[in-house]
Amino acid sequence: MSGKKLLASPLGLRQLSSLPPSIRHSIVRLQFLPQPPSILTLRSLSRSSSSSTTPDRIVRPLVPPPREGSGPLLSRRPDRELPDLPRPIAVWAKTLPVFILVITLCSLAIFNYEKSSSSTVSSILYALRTNIHARELLGDEIYFGSKVPWISGELAPMQGTINISFWVKGTKGLAKTRFVAVKRRGGFFETLEWSLKTEDGRELQLLEMEGTRDPLEGQSFD
């Protein structure tokens, strides 16, 4: 009991000198040992640490990104999640067929323009204008049947094959002309068919008519 009282209250020099040497040394050691912190000290430390934290260091959950139809954003927040980007595969799956279709149409338009502006087609149109039988059927001013003519078939003079058909019209009516020719020895073409067929079914074989001149007569594409 005496030892506990001495530890609870500070000891003076006179009290220590009256004790035996062994007890005196042990009491001095116990007084200078570091004491554990009390509960009040821990509470004060926790309050000071919580008051020292700034609002910027507080970790908050991210706000979900806006969705379609949610309306305009009235404020910008740094804690908002980024929206999901569309997958490239899904985008290409929608745009690739459109791209292929546009390329195909452009290629067909270029090839058709080359056919319509070729010397073979120009020779056929000139021969129709000067042919008396074609003028009796179609009238004067024979030209393409539409503003954007479409030349069907194969037109490859360098390879020796011509098999085309297209619509022509004059002041009297509209008809479809077909022209077939092949290359013979020497590089000259031989016309196999040249005809006119009207919308009502009437057909005129121009090569069988008297006075018809071959549009490719004397022409060579070597």
From TrEMBL:
**Its Gene Ontology biological processes?**
mitochondrial respiratory chain complex IV assembly
Membrane-spanning residues = 89-111
**GO cellular component annotations of the record:** mitochondrial inner membrane
Q: Where is the signal peptide?
A: none
Asked if the Swiss-Prot or TrEMBL record annotates the protein with the keyword Glycosyltransferase, the reply is no
Q: Where is the composition biased (Low complexity)?
A: 44-56
Q: Matching InterPro entries, A to Z? A: Coa1, Coa1_fungi
The annotated region (Disordered) lies at 44-79
Keyword Transmembrane helix assigned to the entry: answer is: yes
Q: Which UniProt keywords apply?
A: Membrane, Transmembrane, Transmembrane helix
Q: What is this protein called?
A: Cytochrome oxidase assembly protein 1
Q: Which source organism?
A: Cladophialophora chaetospira
> Lineage from the top down?
Eukaryota, Fungi, Dikarya, Ascomycota, Pezizomycotina
